[in-house]
Each structure stands twice: as C-alpha cells, then as structure tokens.
Amino acid sequence: MPVLTARALLLDMDGTLVNSDAVVERIWRRWADAHGLDGDEVMEVAHGRQGHASMAVLLPGRPMRLNLEDNARMLAAETADLDGVVPVPGAPEFLASLRGVPHALVTSADVPLSTARMAAAGLELPEVRVTAESVGASKPDPEGFLKAAAELGVDPARCVVFEDSGAGIAAGRAAGMRVVGVGPRAAAHGPDAVVRDLCEVRVEVVGGAGRARGTGEAGEPGVAEVRIRVG
After folding, report:
1. Is 167 helix (H, G, I), strand (E, B) or coil?
2. Could you confirm whether 12 is annotated as catalytic?
C-alpha cells in the first residue's frame, strides 16, 4: 500500500468527492449537439476544466465572449439539475478524517454549483475553498492549487492533490505537488498513486496539532503532518 506524507490535502470536487457524471453528460452532450460536435470527443475535454476553457479547446477561434455566455447558461443549468448527484464512495468518511488537518476544495465549479453539488451529495464544504471565481486561469493551470496552498500556509511541495481528470492532475503536477488519482479517468494521466474511490484512502495524523488553516511556512507548530495510505 503506497504511503504519502503531507501537511495539506487539496481536493477536487467533481469525480473526486462528488459523482456528478450524469449531469455533466446531459449538459455537455446537449451543448455538443447544438454545435455539431461529437459528444464522446467533447466529454474527453470537458472534465476538470472550467466550461469556457473547454469550449476554447473544442471551438478554437470562437470569440471568448460567446464561450463565457454559454458557460454562464450551463453553470445555471448544472446548478439546477442535481438528479443523480451522489457522493463518491468513501467521501463522507474521508472528509470526516480530515477534521483538524489543513485541507481545501479546489474546483472548476463556481460557488453556487459547488455549494449545490456538495449539499446534494450530503458532504460538508471545507472551510477553505478555491472556486472558479477565485482564479484567472482554469485547470490545467496550477493557479487554483497554489492559491489554496498559500491560504493554508503550506509549502506546495508538502501538499497532496486528489483529482480525477487529466486537466486537474496536470494542474497539481504543475504546482509542484504530488497527486492521487481518483476513479477510472485518472490512471491514464500519470498521478503518483491511483485509487478506485475514496474507500481506498486512509489519513492519519502523525505529528503536530493540526488545524484548518496553517500560520505560515510548512513545519510551523500547529500544522499537522499526515500520513496518507492509498490502495
């Protein structure tokens, strides 16, 4: 069983904590049909990125204004459609094990969507959250993960990312962090370790009096050292 040590855990939402695949498929396949695109090809791109960033990849040369307008409509539709949104197996227990451990949600969803999906899945939102409104660049840019590490007061090199998508895994690596891939999409993108779901993850505090936020550099008193067993 692989073991990683860290001082903070940075968590993606969709596909990692929350299974929202049913909604994502419905919304994005409708968008693909409306633009004459192959639905399977669209789904290969859509996971992990902000919607407008996926559109920019799929329709190169399209004015960003149109992508942003479509993205706003799709975010509203996704927030209203919670049918089939459930927790990833093991997610409630995993989040409960992080009480007192510095951790953050780092998601390409905006505040309304992330709030709605976590509630629909019966999951508590972490205190520290980096959402679409918080960043200027979508995953695979590392900005979101670096912002979360800075807010927690933890060196990026001492953070472990949990992600399911190629874009998210690339973002974690670009931030200089180790990455645990969650679910069937993850293995193809070279994370440091892969688990089927969060039932295969155990988190143990092994040093320090952990708390939700750090106070400065990693290793400072009050920032927990944690051992993560995966597999």
Report:
1. helix
2. yes
